[in-house]
Amino acid sequence: MNLRTNIVKDETNIVKVDKGDLVANSHRILATWRNYFSHMLNVHGFIYVRQTEIHTTDTLVTEPNASEIEMATEELKSHKSPGIHQITTKLIRAGGKTICSKIYKFIISI
Q1: C-alpha dihedral, 70 to 74 to 75 to 81, nearest 10°
Q2: How far apart are the C-alpha atoms of 4 and 2, rounded to whole Å?
Q3: Which of 4, 27, 28, 50 is 20 to 30 A away from residue 107, measured at CA?
Q4: CA distances for 31 relative to 15, 22, 24, angstroms
């Protein structure tokens, strides 16, 4: 005779709060985590944050030229989903040099 025993483990979520008390109530656990991350991730009391400038002799990324933009738009794969902007490859190609010029100016501004 072969007996099979299924053991079911009840998961208990318990969180220790600041004072050392244990909390098992799911709403209280969520509130505890919300307060914890709010405290850890939000910076309070800083009036002035100094930005550090990075000075390099070399450019980090070389600027593309207009012909590289035109070549990249020609190499775009057809029949791909346009994404959240809803701009298809076909639409970009239909824009020709005008759209390439706009894309080039946009990239240079970045």
Answers
A1: 110
A2: 7
A3: 50
A4: 11, 13, 12
- pLDDT per residue over 51-70, tens digit each? 566 666 666 678 888 899 99
- Residue with token string 């002799």: 57
The dihedral formed by the CA atoms of 37, 41, 47 and 50, expressed in degrees to the nearest 10? 170
Could you tell me whether strands 15-16 and 22-23 are parallel, antiparallel, or unpaired per DSSP bridges? antiparallel
Query: How far apart, in whole angstroms, are the C-alpha atoms of residue 34 and residue 26?
Result: 12
- The residue assigned the tokens 């969180």 is 15
**How far is 79 from 74, CA to CA, in rounded Å?**
14
Chain center to CA of 18: 31
Please report how many Cα atoms fall inside a 13 Å half-sphere around the Cα of residue 30, on the Cβ side. Answer: 2
The DSSP code for 77 is P
7 alpha-carbon distance from chain centroid: 41
Q: What are the Cα distances from residue 65, in Å, to 49, 97, 105, 107?
A: 36, 13, 10, 10
Listed residue (31, 32, 14) closest to 23, CA to CA: 14
